[in-house]
Amino acid sequence: MSKSGLEGVIVGQSRLSYIDGDQGELIYGGYDIDDLARNTTFEEVCYLLWNGKLPNRGELEGLRRELETARQVDRRLLD
């Protein structure tokens, strides 16, 4: 029987995040996860993880437009 999922998989290094379980730290893109959760939107965190920096206003609006376009359902599926 084959296994599915990532159970038992351990990641040694990541450029996206840092975890220190003993200290209770979770860092995404250089920012503490608590700060991100309190002060940023989902889209801003996506941009951070994809681009290595938080977006400025124009970059954020561009990402929101891209995501909105990607969410649109083809009319043929709705009819």
What structural keywords apply?
3-stranded antiparallel beta sheet; 79 residues; 4 helices; 46% helix; alpha+beta
Structure in words:
This protein has one domain. The longest helix has 15 residues, at 57-71. With 79 residues, the protein is an alpha+beta fold. It is flat, with a radius of gyration of 17 Å. It contains four helices and three strands, in the order βββαααα. It has a three-stranded antiparallel beta sheet. Helix content is 46%, strand content 13%. Strand 2 (25-28) and strand 3 form a beta hairpin.
pLDDT under 50 segments (min length 5)?
Answer: none
- What is the helix fraction of residues, given as a range? 40-55%
Mean pLDDT: 89
Distance between the termini: 42 Å
- Kindly provide the radius of gyration, computed on alpha-carbon positions and rounded to a whole number of angstroms: 17 Å
What structural class do you assign from the helix and strand content?
alpha+beta
Shape: flat
The beta-strand count equals: 3
Q: Treating each run of at least 4 consecutive H or I residues as one helix, how many helices? A: 4
- The secondary-structure element order is EEEHHHH
- Strands ordered across the widest β-sheet: 1-2-3
The number of domains: 1
* Residue fraction in strands: 5-15%
Sheet with the most strands, sense and barrel status: 3 strands, antiparallel
What is the topology?
Elements: E1 17-20, E2 25-28, E3 31-32, H1 33-39, H2 42-51, H3 57-71, H4 75-78
Brief synopsis:
With 79 residues, this protein is an alpha+beta fold. Helix content is 46%, strand content 13%. It has one domain.
